[in-house]
Amino acid sequence: MQTLPINTAAMDFTFLAIVPKLDQNQVQARNKDNVPKWEVQLLMSSEAERRPEVLALTLTTNTPPEIGAMTPVMVENLIARHWENNGRSGIAFLSLI
Question: pLDDT at residue 25 above 80?
Fold first, then answer.
């Protein structure tokens, strides 16, 4: 599966929320090492874009970060990964925050 790194140097991120990432059975998803996956919702903005966007990215960790809403955060190692499943497709974002 191909991944594309994203340079976040010119972007600003604000933490909005973190929720368990659910699988197709509505159970919290886990990676191959059985570590829980979380969906982190961030407000992403940059001077190049006119409007901020909400970015949902996947974070894999046993303990989710305790960050207050509207807290500025840094995003490192952001990657985009194309996915396909049962005739649907999209781009998933994964990172360290």
Answer: yes
The DSSP annotation for 43-58 comes to EEEETTSSS-EEEEEE
53-60 vs 71-73, strand pairing mode:
unpaired
C-alpha span between 86 and 89 (Å, rounded): 8
Q: How far apart are the first and last CA of the chain?
A: 23
Residue 23 gets which letter from DSSP? -
Average pLDDT over residues 65-93: 90
Eight-class DSSP state of 30: B
Q: Give 16: exposed, middle or buried? Use CB within 10 Å, 0-12, 13-18, 19+.
A: middle
Q: Beginning with the edge strand found earlier in the chain, give each strand of the sheet holding 53-60 in spatial order.
A: 3-5, 76-85, 88-96, 53-60, 37-46, 11-20, 71-73
Q: How far, in Å, CA of 74 to CA of 92, rounded?
A: 18
